[in-house]
Amino acid sequence: xxxxxxxxxxxxxxxxxxxxxxxxxxxxxxxxxxxxxxxxxxxxxxxxxxxxxxxxxxxxxxxxxxxxxxxxxxxxxxxxxxxxxxxxxxxxxxxxxxxxxxxxxxxxxxxxxxxxxxxxxxxxxxxxxxxxxxxxxxxxxxxxxxxxxxxxxxxxxxxxxxxxxxxxxxxxxxxxxxxxxxxxxxxxxxxxxxxxxxxxxxxxxxxxxxxxxxxxxxxxxxxxxxxxxxxxxxxxxxxxxxxxxxxxxxxxxxxxxxxxxxxxxxxxxxxxxxxxxxxxxxxxxxxxxxxxxxxxxxxxxxxxxxxxxxxxxxxxxxxxxxxxxxxxxxxxxxxxxxxxxxxxxxxxxxxxxxxxxxxxxxxxxxxxxxxxxxxxxxxxxxxxxxxxxxxxxxxxxxxxxxxxxxxxxxxxxxxxxxxxxxxxxxxxxxxxxxxxxxxxxxxxxxxxxxxxxxxxxxxxxxxxx
Length: 465
Known about the structure:
Blueprint: E1 4-5, H1 24-35, E2 52-58, E3 61-64, E4 70-76, E5 79-87, E6 92-98, E7 103-107, E8 110-113, E9 127-130, E10 134-138, E11 141-144, E12 152-154, E13 159-163, E14 166-169, E15 198-204, E16 208-212, E17 215-218, E18 221-227, E19 233-238, E20 241-244, E21 249-253, E22 257-262, E23 265-268, E24 273-276, E25 280-284, E26 287-290, E27 295-298, E28 307-313, E29 316-319, E30 324-327, E31 330-336, E32 339-342, E33 346-351, E34 368-373, E35 376-378, E36 380-383, E37 390-395, E38 398-400, E39 403-410, E40 415-417, E41 422-426, E42 430-431, E43 435-436, E44 442-446, E45 451-454, E46 460-464
Parallel strand pairs: 2-6, 5-7, 5-8, 6-9, 7-10, 8-11, 9-12, 10-13, 11-14, 12-15, 13-16, 14-17, 15-18, 16-19, 17-20, 18-21, 19-22, 20-23, 21-24, 22-25, 23-26, 24-27, 25-28, 26-29, 27-30, 28-31, 29-32, 30-33, 31-34, 33-36, 34-37, 35-38, 36-39, 37-39, 38-40, 39-41, 40-43, 41-44, 44-46
Antiparallel strand pairs: 1-42, 2-3, 4-5, 45-46
């Protein structure tokens, strides 16, 4: 008769609705209160007051608005073709579209913008859509240098589509040999573990962006970013190369921001994804190589009910550090049929956030819920977050690694090989022969019935009721 581990009756937390509602100006005021107290409000989202684009499409009508930065090009209705722009001053940009009647097309553009940028989006961005505009970009090369010099942006209920293009934001040189870049939100907060002073793209304020067969590159900070959703932001990349050369993330998902990556290649100096609060990110058949983590979850919004989500379906993941790092956040993590290699041998690591702005848990914290399906994976699952529980569910999966301080459920086709001393609570009836460990390793477990078992390779399983 098979020896069975009886499950312990543990109530799994119910996900509670999030009440987060942050408007852009609320965020600006909150950050100024902490970083710029007693001084005039600085809105780092606002473009230069004298900003002017080479070409402006407003309410469905296109016009040349800054001829001096145009080397050549053609404007026909809402179509801009063969545009060559050299914008070397802060207020100058490339193509700016606004208004719900605007459905612009930009083809075969080469746009270079230099000098210090101002804000996120607007007429002084290389390509920007705002106030309900729709813009499609094809076969473009966009190159920017300077602090906060974005290549592309979509905001205020706009839609941006980019096909077969190259976007590269260099920023300003930084490091020990250069004067530090200053200003509110001119560089990423230290807690994000990235450096730099320019992002390649940003989607914000109820807008959507789509990228197809393109290269999105930055030297530092981030390639595909989001900000201030004010309800809903959507970011999607298909068959793209996402690259950060020196430091920086591949993509960001702020609260209420939804990121989807299909068949993309990520080669990033830091993490592929940063997920803040109730944002989510999905990688499908992507090949991801990270200088630090695949993904980092964090929450500084002050809403304890927020839950971030990460889904990885197929593809391959290689990270120099933990695959997933969770810093004082609630999460839903699903890995399905993907190949994972962690440089430090840790698959999932939850800990207390060192950021003083971290969100404290509520009375019933949702915790961290990890599901692995159709996997053969090596790596530890460590819960050092004393404020939130970790729940691990395995379906048709073999895991080789330590599990510390987690609730564990295995289906009948899953196996766990504990490579070091572990501590778990079994939340589903499990056959003893689904668990194994080498000699010298002890698994301390809570279950429905007490018992001690000698495992196949010499380890011990000690269950207390």
